[in-house]
């Protein structure tokens, strides 16, 4: 079964992360990028988390993006960089090697 892997602090994650094909990685971050030559991981996008209000409407917060999502597509390894913290003040970048297994 594939997993939803949530990483709240990318800087505390360590230099390598071991996941499986099909896993969805959700980083609490304001930006990110992957090695463009690799098809192992696919950056699905940078998002703003939102909630559903009591009236059934989606209520987005005001502020910068706060979630970066990657999909583990194939076995292999990929280098990614995830930016967390306030992007307008002192952002922190975490470089990770993601190893994807079957």
What's a concise summary of this model?
This protein has strands spanning 4-7, 16-20, 24-27, 31-34, 41-47, 51-52, 58-59, 67-72, 76-84, 92-101.
Describe the structure.
With 102 residues, the chain is mostly beta strands. It has a single domain, classed as Immunoglobulin-like (Sandwich), CATH 2.60.40.2020. It has no helices and 10 strands. It has strands at 4-7, 16-20, 24-27, 31-34, 41-47, 51-52, 58-59, 67-72, 76-84, 92-101. The protein has a 4-stranded mixed β-sheet with strand order 1-3-8-5, with no helix packed on it.
List the helices and strands and how they pair.
Layout: E1 4-7, E2 16-20, E3 24-27, E4 31-34, E5 41-47, E6 51-52, E7 58-59, E8 67-72, E9 76-84, E10 92-101
Q: What number of structural domains do the residues give? A: 1
Q: Strand share of the residues?
A: over 45%
The secondary-structure element order is: EEEEEEEEEE
Give the uncertain stretches in residue-range form: none
Question: What class, by secondary structure content?
Answer: mainly beta
Q: What is the alpha-carbon Rg in Å?
A: 14 Å
Q: Which outline best applies?
A: globular
User: Which CATH architecture would you pick?
Assistant: Sandwich
DSSP strand tally: 10
Mean pLDDT value:
91
Which strand order does the major sheet show?
1-3-8-5
The total count of helices amounts to: 0
User: For this structure, what is the CATH class?
Assistant: Mainly Beta
Q: Calculate the terminal CA-CA distance, rounded to whole Å.
A: 11 Å
Which range best describes the helical content: under 10%, 10-25%, 25-40%, 40-55%, 55-70% or over 70%? Answer: under 10%
| CATH topology (fold) name | Immunoglobulin-like
Largest sheet: 4 strands, mixed
């Amino acid at each position: 079964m594939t997993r939803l892997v949530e990483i709240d602090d990318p800087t505390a994650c360590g230099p390598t992360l071991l996941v499986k094909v099909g896993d969805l990685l959700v980083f609490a971050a304001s930006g990110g990028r992957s090695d463009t030559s690799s098809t192992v991981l696919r950056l699905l996008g940078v998002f703003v988390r939102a909630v559903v209000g009591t009236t059934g409407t989606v209520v987005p917060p005001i502020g910068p993006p706060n979630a970066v999502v990657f999909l583990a597509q194939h076995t292999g390894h990929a280098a990614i960089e995830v930016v967390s913290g306030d992007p307008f003040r002192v952002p922190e970048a975490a470089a990770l090697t993601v190893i994807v297994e079957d």
